[in-house]
Write a structure and sequence with these properties.
The complex is a heterodimer.
Chain A lengths: L1 H11 L5 H26 L5 H7 L1 H15 L6 H25 L4 H26 L4 H9 L7 H20 L1 H9 L1 H6 L4 H23 L4 H13 L5 H23 L7 H19 L5 H25 L7 H9 L11 H23 L1 H5 L9 H4 L2 H11 L7
Chain B lengths: L2 H31 L3 H22 L4 H26 L3 H22 L9 H6 L19 H4 L5 H18 L1 H9 L1 H6 L4 H23 L3 H14 L5 H29 L8 H19 L11
The chains are: A mainly alpha, B mainly alpha.
Chain lengths: ~400, ~300
């Protein structure tokens, strides 16, 4: 275990030899590009199209392997494999489009059909490879669940450089992508070709997928496109920040995954990258201040306390007994009632204040029904915190004639 | 090809292929109509960690343990997808993508780390399936079908999948009303007390069960083709549910028979030495059937509702 820890630390700090370092950095660049394009794909609600793309690479990958093995005797030349993958993945995207456009089948059915049928057909070609040669299938298996072990230096360089170029392309296209994601009609009036932009988005997704095949594997590369943006969604509502956060999460996941995977056998790169990404996602899901589970729970508890306090005070003002245990507990803690449920002096004052506040809220609703309906905090916070002082003065004036009621 | 070798080498895999295909296609109709085709995708991936987890806990590859493991994994996945969807206001597709890739990755890692590989479980197997390996060793010919001694040695996958098909049929018949109304109008189903929620969940558990049983024959991904393609093609043939179910079963049988035949004997016809992946060829055949239905199915366009 100590040995493995040492290996992990040296790989983490880029001290584990040139190839491991190159592979880890290439993976990080790939993760960043995947997170960035994934953000737009998520906002365009097409995340699972990338699932069809990644599975549809298999027939092209295996086909290219056979073609190269027959012509040159070496089926493992990576650029050739990637071109083959890209071609069949493109065919897969077209098939999804064709099915959804031409028939009444929905997009989910088209995606599921394309990904499984292409994968099945790829499996057939893989078995042909297995029957042709004995050492060949090893070159293909690495593409299934990702394997950076024994990756050639030229392959790592190809991945790193292409991932960086794709990152630049995504950066340049961020404006049209954002516009099309949020309002395609408006984007069209601004002179953006929506179809072309969508095509570019899918093309970049395809390119990232194909480049990532060897690192993350064709079954799991889709996770690098989906998980980082979904995690980023928990930290911000602004698309430009979301792209940055998703890229960072993608880069860290891919980097750590590659590093951990390099420390020993039986640690498939793709699976580790996905699990690191999922761990980061889980942290976001629970702890994000924007919409995390913890923040949401706290907010709910605070809200429920506030409602119980307000309703309890109003009941005190009406002289009604309070039976609800939570209401009693809340009022007790604030020192508004004694243990036997009788109001304290402070409770009496707070109760009259609550009644006055309710009356002001009611006046606000009468006078400005539209504005009041748009105010989510009505009856929950003192009205003085919710409306500007001049409006408050108007409402107070409104109350005076009927002030005898309060 | 003599009857003897056919019964020994091909009869059982062919039967397993047909039964798995039919069981998947029946449930697939409801997935396709409910726009839950990708739930089938997610569940079939999630089955892997369930199976490996069950193996690591119990140390056996008994069907019961695997079923339980897969059912637990499927329910956990559904729960997690709901949490993510609600908490993050994330579209269901992306929430599904997060959960099933993460669980599948966990399954792959467990598989690589454990020694489960030694007992017939490995990553390639999980992805490709291996229909051809189900051989009936003691079969002597067609006579073995009525020979108790040979039947005792019948590979267990075949009777198991026959049971699965019966279970699926029973499920569809017993919950016909709920499935039918819940599929077309969930709100109405709720109002007449047809409990669309629990029945929808039961549908997903059935999908998980069928995925497990088909898993070791056809693998995690090709089973998706069995769920979706025959049902999708049937959807383009008719507007009525019962005929659609019938079409889907017919397509499923056709895909299995044609696919298996092409895989086992096709390569020999063109002079290749050995056969190719039967599961992959069945998926390919079902894809071709779907493509033909897309080109010529009488109901391929459907009713366009103005938005």
């Amino acid at each position: 275990m100590g040995e493995r820890m040492e290996a992990f630390l040296s790989a983490l700090l880029l001290q584990a030899g040139f190839n491991t370092t190159l592979v880890s950095l290439g993976a990080a660049l790939l993760g960043a590009s995947a997170g960035a394009i994934g953000t737009f794909v998520l906002l365009r609600k097409r995340s699972l199209v990338s699932d069809a793309i990644s599975h549809a690479t298999l027939p092209g990958l295996a086909g290219a392997f056979i073609a190269m093995a027959l012509w040159t005797g070496n089926g493992r030349w990576m650029p050739g494999l990637l071109v083959g993958s890209a071609l069949s993945a493109a065919l897969g995207i077209l098939a999804v489009e064709w099915i959804t456009r031409r028939t009444r089948l929905t997009e989910d059915t088209a995606i599921g059909a394309v990904l499984s049928v292409f994968f099945g057909f790829g499996t057939v070609i893989v078995t042909v490879i297995q029957s042709l040669s004995t050492g060949g299938q090893a070159g293909i298996t690495g593409f299934l669940v990702g394997s950076t072990a024994g990756m050639l230096r030229s392959e790592a360089e190809l991945i790193a450089v292409t991932a960086a170029l794709l990152g630049v392309a995504i950066f340049l296209l961020r404006r049209p992508f954002t516009l099309v994601c949020f309002d395609q009609d408006y984007a069209a009036t601004r002179g953006i070709d929506v179809r072309l932009t969508d095509l570019a988005m899918m093309g970049l997704t395809l390119a990232v997928t194909v480049i990532g095949l060897k690192v993350a594997g064709l079954v799991l590369i889709v996770a690098l496109i989906i998980i980082p943006p979904v995690a980023a969604r928990f930290w911000t509502n602004r698309p430009e920040r979301m792209v940055v956060v998703a890229s960072a999460i993608g880069a860290v996941s891919a980097y750590l995954g590659a590093v951990i995977s390099s420390t020993g056998p039986g640690l498939p790169t793709g699976a580790l990258i996905v699990l690191v990404a999922f761990a980061l996602f889980s942290v976001s899901l629970v702890f994000s201040p924007v919409r995390g589970l913890l923040a949401g729970t706290i907010e709910r508890v605070v809200l429920s306390r506030r409602i119980h306090e307000r309703q309890g005070l109003l009941a005190l003002a009406r002289g009604e007994p309070i039976h609800d245990p939570l209401t009693r507990r809340v009022l007790r803690r604030r020192g508004y009632v004694r243990a036997d449920g009788v109001a304290t002096e402070a409770g009496g004052r707070a109760a009259s204040a609550a009644v006055l506040d309710e009356a002001l809220w009611a006046a606000y609703r009468r006078r400005f029904p539209d504005e009041a309906a748009a105010e989510p905090r009505q009856g929950l916070v003192p009205i003085a915190d919710a409306v500007p002082p001049d409006l408050l003065a108007t409402l107070r004036g409104e109350l005076r004639p009927s002030g005898a009621r309060a | 090809m003599t009857g003897e070798t056919f019964v020994m080498l091909n009869l059982v895999p062919l039967g397993v292929g047909i039964l798995a295909s039919v069981a998947c296609a029946l449930l697939g109709n409801f997935l396709v109509l409910r726009r839950q085709a990708l739930v089938g995708d997610a569940i079939s991936h999630v089955v892997l960690p369930g199976i490996v987890g069950a193996f690591l806990l119990t140390g056996t590859i008994a069907a019961g343990a695997m079923l339980a493991g897969a059912a637990v994994a499927a329910l956990a996945a559904i729960l997690l997808i709901e949490v993510i969807r609600k908490a993050g206001r994330i579209e269901p597709g992306a929430a599904m993508g997060v959960v099933f890739t993460a669980l599948f990755a966990a399954g792959v890692l467990m598989l690589e780390q454990s020694n489960a590989r030694s007992v017939h479980l490995d990553v390639e197997h999980a992805l490709y399936g291996n229909l051809e390996s189900i051989v009936w060793f003691s079969a002597q010919g067609w006579g073995s079908l009525v020979d108790p001694a040979a039947l005792a040695d019948l590979p267990p996958q075949l009777p198991r999948l026959a049971l699965v098909v019966c279970a699926v049929l029973l499920f569809v018949v017993a919950f016909w009303k709920e499935l039918f109304i819940g599929t077309f109008d969930a709100a109405f189903a709720e109002s007449v007390g047809a409990r669309p929620g629990p029945v929808g969940l039961a549908l997903i558990v059935m999908v998980a069960m069928v995925s497990v049983m088909a898993f070791d024959a056809v693998g995690a991904i090709i089973v998706i083709a069995m769920f979706i393609c025959p049902a999708g093609a049937a959807r383009l043939m008719t507007d009525r549910l019962v005929p659609q179910l019938a079409w889907s079963v017919a397509f499923a049988v056709a895909a299995a028979v044609i696919g298996y035949g092409l895989a086992a004997w096709g390569p020999l016809w063109i002079g290749m030495a050995s056969s190719v992946s039967a599961a992959g060829m069945i998926a390919t055949a079902s894809g071709v059937i779907l493509m033909l239905a897309c080109l010529a199915g009488p109901k391929r366009r459907g009713v366009r509702v103005a938005a």
